[in-house]
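As promised in the previous annual report, we have extended the structural survey to additional targets. Below is the entry for DNA topoisomerase 1.
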Amino acid sequence: MSKNLVIVESPTKAKTITKFLDKNYKIMSSYGHLRDLPERDLGVNIKKNFEPKYVVAADKKQLVNDLKKAAAKSAMVYFATDEDREGEAISWHLLTLLTDNKTKLQYKRIVFHEITKNAILAALKNPRDLNQNLVNAQQARRILDRLVGYKLSPFLWKKVAKGLSAGRVQSVAVRLIVEREREIKKFKSEEYWALKAIFNSQGQEFKSTLYKIDDKKLDKLAIKTKKEIEQIINQLNGAEYRVAAITKKQTLKNPYAPFTTSSLQQEAHNKLGFSAKQTMYIAQALYEGVKIGQEQTGLITYMRTDSLNLAESFIEAARHWIKNELGDKYLPLSGLKYKTKTKSAQEAHEAIRPTEVNRSPHKLRDYLDDKQFKLYDLIWSRALACQIKPAIIDNTSLDIQAKNYIFRATGSVIKFDGPLRVYGKNIKDNILPELKKDEPVDLIKLEPKQSFTEPLPRYNDASLVKKLEELGIGRPSTYAPIISTIQQRNYIKREQGKFVPQDISFVVTDLLTEHFPKIVDYQFTADMEDELDQIAQGKKEWVPLLKEFYDPFNNNLEKKYMEINKKDLINEKTDERCEKCGQSMVIKTSRYGKFLACTGFPNCRNTKQINEDGVKKESPYGGSPEGREPEMTDLKCEKCGAKMLIRQGKFGKFYACSAFPKCRNTKALDQDTGVVCPQCGHGKIVAKKTKSRKTFYACDQYPNCKFALWSRPTGEKCEKCGSLMVNAGKGEAKCSNKECK
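The corresponding structure token record, generated without further manual editing, is:
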């Protein structure tokens, strides 16, 4: 009897599902997308209704053949990829690849929010057809991004610097970071003062702050100088302090909503220090399956979602846990539901939650690594807390008057902790003494405090994701890749967790803002996301959308090729003269920063570095074409004995002799992966480059050991054959042994 074939996109997912199904099912993985637009060609036939030209990746051809053979032998093929646009597109590509004139494929599409046995069995009982609207929305997004990137990036290479890239969403993200940096640089700090008072009553000390003068509430900048604060203190000398007013108010603190992708990324960054990319990588592992004793199962629901919906079964299970573990006083009359504000959210999807309520974090401590445990604890706690009654907090404010000055003290007491028992900020009781109106209090001391206004902080992972979501730019699956891309392209650097724009990002942002305003316009980009959502909902056709965007974009691009001069963009005139040839020096901007360069190039290649303050400095190792400071090493040149430097070149860092130009010896800078060579047992696997600049991974004991791989090893070993596992993209891994499936 023929088996049924289930195809998923992840090998980890396949491994988990295999545990749930009997021998009548064969589970295989596509390892992500099997085909995509070609790397070295536009791959879009603009004249033929933007028809995409999809190609199978070279390293996936054998896998396609294996899937075809398995499909041909199967009674039914189930496409079980993720339930979003990307997952739907992968299933559609699979169907196209596995169907030919000879084969009439019997197939069904199944979807599930969590990878558990019950969810998989329920999905098999309730299959559906492929959703072509979701496929079209994914194709439209992919083609849009290709048109912008493939057309605009070469323009930047020619007019600004080689190696740059532009993107429909990434360029908007860079603009946000650049504009925030300009706000910070323009910001002028202002001095202001506050006056604190420490009082005593009934043996209890409490703090307060000057709140009003002459019944006028003070704003932050009301007291600007030390002289003003000293005048106030002098006027308060010998004053009597009495209670002018007592206000008590009870407030409810509602539980937080369950996590969406963006709120999880923000909270994981704020509470755990995780980057957006790191959060998604860990969440993917929790979703796809973790081995708990002898059981392999998914611990959380699908982590790419903007829905706040929760399954009724989960709400009931959560209520049962709350009643048993915390008691009836924590349980609302009915389950709490949260309405998603995002227009594009699909309520059929769920928020991020644990798949099993009773699988509390402390029970899984021995099965998860430290980061997995912390993220799971965050998700589990938030999901349980969202079904608990609000916290009750008693807030008290005391107004203490002396002459025409009023100081305010505030205190709070948690009467009922509610969701704070499980999740939330630690709110400490701040209890004020029980006082009556007109009762005197003793002043212990007055404390003037000088402060200065500060600019808005630079963006970090959490604040950038929040801003993108507020503007309606990008979707749950795109936030982490956007941040990774603009770092890889050297537009920004991460310093102390904050995003710092590099010099080149200012040049590119200004160029795009002036000459391609729609590409970096916040509203236009958000509107485009809404239109893609309409395609996904079947309310809009995708080809007219592409045409409407492309025609004016391409016409403008051709026009700008003729109008814009590279020198006007990246050259800034100076009064500096080249000491080597006497010609004028200009400030140039490259991907790696600003530097002084002689206008006599290429006859004169003199360059000088520029500090962040704009001050020129000589490089002790001679100028480099892009003004980058090399790093000194302890290695010696095997040709002349001089010390070797680490320089930054077009294709990355490399070793170069410090005696240049007398000695021109260079060699590749191997990057250690930290993985021990499985062949010789003592060498390390390092990243190397071929002559054509293609990266491969090989043992550093070459030529004594000739072990090598084309993909980066993860450090883990295959459970089936013991070979090294290698990176397969999208946070996935596969066995390096081609014979191992």
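Residues 617-627 have pLDDT under 50 and may be disordered. The two ends are 22 Å apart (CA to CA). These points will be discussed at the next consortium meeting with the crystallography subgroup.
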